[in-house]
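Supplementary Methods, section 5.1.

A reviewer requested that the exact input to the structure prediction be made available. We therefore reproduce it here, unchanged from the version used in the analyses.
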Amino acid sequence: MIRRSRQVSSPHPNPTTPSSYLAKRKAIQTLAHATRVMAPALVALTLASVAHAQGTMDFSGATTLMGAFKTFAIYAGAVICFGGLIFAGIRMMSGRFQDAIPGLFGALFGAGVLGWGAGWIGSLTGQSM
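The structure derived from this sequence is encoded token-by-token as follows.
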């Protein structure tokens, strides 16, 4: 027959002794004191690093990208306008004037892209035509 002991063994002999309570309290006080001492220094270092990084933002890439969009708008508008004029001219030379009207509207649309599109993009970047 196996005998079982009715005593429950604990890793700590008596966890509620006054010495262990004082040791825990001392550890908590030490940690709280260290936190109070270090907190202002950590806040100051954090703010200093943020203030240092503030002047390093560079938007020259965005300006370059918008310049590329403006150049694309100029070329796309010119191609659309020229293509519409060629389409309308061929239709007019063959005598089909009603078929030339969509080509003229295409040329007008291309001129709008060329003028207003490039002008609007240039106004966003501060560049002029």
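The mean pLDDT is 80. These observations are discussed further in the main text.
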